[in-house]
Amino acid sequence: xxAGLNLALWVxxxxxxxxxxxxxxxxxxxxxxxxxAASRDPAASLGRLVVVASSGQPAPGAxxxxxxxxxxxxxxxxxxxxxxxxxxxxxxxxxxxxxAWYVEDLRSTNGTQVNGAPVVGxxxxxxxDEIRIGDVRLRLERGRG
Amino acid sequence: MTGFAxxxxxxxxxxxxxxxxxxxxxxxxxxxVVALAVGSLSLGLERTGRLEPADLPALAxxxxxxxxxxxxxxxxxxxxxxxxLPAAAFLGGIGLLVMERLPQDLLVQEVGPWTLGLGSLQLxxxxxxxxxxTAIAVALRSDRWLRLYKYTWAAGGLALLALTFVFGSEVxxxxxTLQVGPIGGQPSELLxxxxxxxxxxxxxxxxxxxADLRVRLVGAITVPPLPYLAPIGAMLTLALGIVVVQRDLxxxxxxxxxxxxxxxxxxxxxTDVALGLVLFAAGFGLLALLFPHVQGRIAVWLDPWADPLxxxxxxxxxxxxxxxxxxVGTGLGAGLPEIGGRLPIPAVxxxxxxxxxxxxxxxxxxxxxxxxxxxxxxxxxxxxxxxxDDFRALLAAGLSLVVGVQAAIxxxxxxxxxxxxGITLPFVSYGGSSLLANAIVVGxxxxxxxxxxxxxxxxxxxxxxxxRRSPGGPS
Lengths: 145, 475
Fold this sequence. Notes:
heterodimer; A: 145 residues; alpha+beta; 26% helix; B: 475 residues; mainly alpha; 3-stranded antiparallel beta sheet; two-stranded antiparallel ribbon; 17 helices
């Protein structure tokens, strides 16, 4: 085998390996960028409440990022103000304890429902569950991140 | 409708989605295709002594297929992941190069007027896989029919496996292939996807119960309440039982590892995983006692040189191939796939493609392949972390675990790190069922990554409430 052919083979061999790793490096860079962007995302939180349906405030489609303790009610001091004729001032509270979300009805006049069943005591919530206060329906979703 | 003030664009016509450019995906795909073109040139020069690609039509068709898939995703306008497709194409392209490099008469099939060799067959399957992945990524919008019919899915998968057991044809002493007319396939590849769907749906539905209602086992060790573990345990036992009797040990290991991973993700309890590992050790010991072929596998793993021309033959040849490759390999086409007209590694295209890569691309190439799996798994777990509910999170995590664990099992087996079990290297190995199953995985991960998908219908009421409301029994 002559020297020119040998040289060309060597160059191509190493160029192939180098290009494979360049492609991988580009993918890794894209991954990293995405992770950084997600960590800057203000919506990153323990969970989110999405308003599925309501009669007035909050507007349908609105999204609330949740803290570990989130109060729901007509009172303006609530984390999520639910302005519905059937909502009490301090209606319900959502808490994140350890691994899961819990909902508790704060002895409201008209009660709170999860997936159509009335809340009695402290009830566990799964992501995707629907909470109903009066005519306002809220879905618990996982936070980004 | 009250739109946001910033959104002044005209709404898209129903049925005509607005195209959404995907520059990141395009760039990565171009990088992958350029690398493959240089690899093909290197193989062509080694073979013919002229500077020409080894198989220009195949390369062009593969690149064209990738660009078509990219174009379809752009036109579909969904906000799906842009890194998964290039990463899978990277692995598929390396697999295609390996299949073109191996002797083409290793596997010949007549399709209509054409007689297709190994490389052309792999190319055809890659095309089908791309089409399937793209179709699922574009069309899969609701996960309702996945999660509501979980028992139907699981029963269908198990029935398919049982059919193989009864009517399957025997290849290499194991009944793994089901032949229906001209089309044959390995249902255990498909079953892995179905099992992940079932596990994810079941665990998502009962996550709160499994994580919080603990039953004391011994001392401080608690387990989830057993009645709630029974359905998933039964399904797992059935699947494991069938594949173990079929001697498909790799699939059994894969199913169990993915189950443990998902259980940990669902409950977040380390003791559950520890208990699972203890059960695994016990079950493995029992299997080794009951089945002589399990003992055989372990003996070959511990000392392949005890029977160098019999049971240990393939593994020894694979180790030699890795050793010949060294750090940077011999170059594509310069390895020793044939000695005296026969292959040193008979199953190089299905079970040992990593040995071929190790010989011709060296440790650098093997590490690149393993890194690509890392990219896919990392991306899948990101999709899981960003998913909006438990089912989608567990499904995305399970699907990416299936790919990663399967790659780890067969790579470890090839390198004599763990006992060798015959499963395929995802995206790289030759084989229609393997490529199709992994295409379904990629397609579903792409579909799950779209956070803007149609909202879910309200979930069904929890089990207790359902029972209470209908005293006559479950409706």
